[in-house]
Each structure stands twice: as C-alpha cells, then as structure tokens.
Amino acid sequence: MRYAKLLPLVGVFLAGCEMADIDTPPIMVTPKVASNAVGIDVYARPRAQGNPVPRFRGQETIPVRTRGKGPKGSANAELTGVPCTLDAGVYSARFQTPANLIVPDYGPNSPAIFVRCEHPDGRSGSTTVSPYNFTAAQRSNSAVGTGLLGAIVIGAVNAAARDDEKDEFKYPTITVNLKD
C-alpha cells in the first residue's frame, strides 16, 4: 500500500520511454574492402588463405535509435528519420533511425562500432559501443538474490567457466543522444 503513491509516477516514466517500432527492413553493413569479403564476413578471403584472422560466427542484428528534444519540448524523446553513419573500421553503413543493422559476429574479436547521427535541424551526436560477453552476463544475473556469499561463489564459478572462444558476445542496443 505504501507504494501505491508511486504507481502514477512509474506510469509517467514508462510513457516517456516509449519506443518507435522498427518497421523498416534490416540494413546490412558494407565491407570496406569488398575483395576480402564474402557477404558480410569481412575476413573471408584472408581466412581462406590461411591468415590468422577472427573466426566468423554468423551475424547479429543491432537496434539503433536516436533520442533528444522532441517536437513538443519533451527532453528525451525518441527521434525518427535521423540520418546516421556507422563505422567499425572494416565495415560501414548509412541509415535513418530507428533501424536494425545486421553486422558480422566475430565473438570477442568483434570491432567497436562508432555511430554518428545528424538531425536536419543541426543537432548531432555520436557514440561508440563494444561487444560484451553475453554468456558471462547471463551467468552473473543468476547471482542476483543469492546474497553476498552466493554472489561470491557464483562469481568465482563464472570466472572459471569463462571461455571467449565458446561464449556468446553481443552488442548492446545503440542509442545516440542528439544535442544542440
């Protein structure tokens, strides 16, 4: 009952976090050196020649969104139709937000991704994201609620069980905040 007063505030907060549906087709990145690539695997030809390059694990879809001052003065609204560029060194893309981007998955060797967005009204922003060990994060989430001793034991097990070659790596959702 004592939390009943907070319920309307939670509703207002969640309404401000509403996100636009991404209803456009996913966008494939473009390898910067097309002669080295097969599809989006930017290291395919060097790997076939026996060079020590990252192992291709498939592809991943990353949502990209932009936020900033909205049309009605809201401080942190999602903005749509904002032109952006993505650069990961070995591949790039041009798109408008919100968008789903399809990138190659190289596990722990996946490159950091830099995204820059520029609104037609002059606002701009950029961010860089790196992949994280999703498998280790899932293991760590199992420690929640086990108390201090349980968290220590699970943390030790996680450290021992970590295997970058077998663990799954993912990029977080990319959100670019636009500023004047």
Description:
With 180 residues, the protein is α+β, with helices and mostly antiparallel strands. Helices cover 21% and strands 31% of the residues. It contains four helices and twelve strands. It has helices at 7-16, 44-48, 134-141, 147-161; strands at residues 27-28, 30-31, 59-68, 77-79, 82-87, 91-97, 99-104, 113-118, 124-129, 132-133, 169-170, 174-177. The strands form three sheets. Strands 1, 3, 4, 7 and 12 form a five-stranded mixed beta sheet that branches. It has a five-stranded antiparallel beta sheet with strand order 2-6-5-8-9, with no helix packed on it. The chain has a two-stranded antiparallel sheet with strand order 10-11. β8 and β9 (124-129) form a beta hairpin. The longest helix has 15 residues, at 147-161. It is globular and about 55 Å long. Mean pLDDT is 83; it is low at 1-16.
Please state the structural category.
alpha+beta
Can you count the helices?
4
* Overall shape: globular
What percent strand?
Answer: 25-35%
Assembly type of the chains comes to single chain
Number of strands: 12
What is the radius of gyration computed over CA atoms, rounded to a whole number of angstroms?
20 Å
Kindly state the mean pLDDT as a whole number? 83
* Cα distance spanning the termini: 43 Å
**Percent helix among the residues?**
10-25%
SSE string, helix = H, strand = E? HEEHEEEEEEEEHHEE
Unreliable stretches: 1-16
For the sheet with most strands, the description reads:
5 strands, mixed
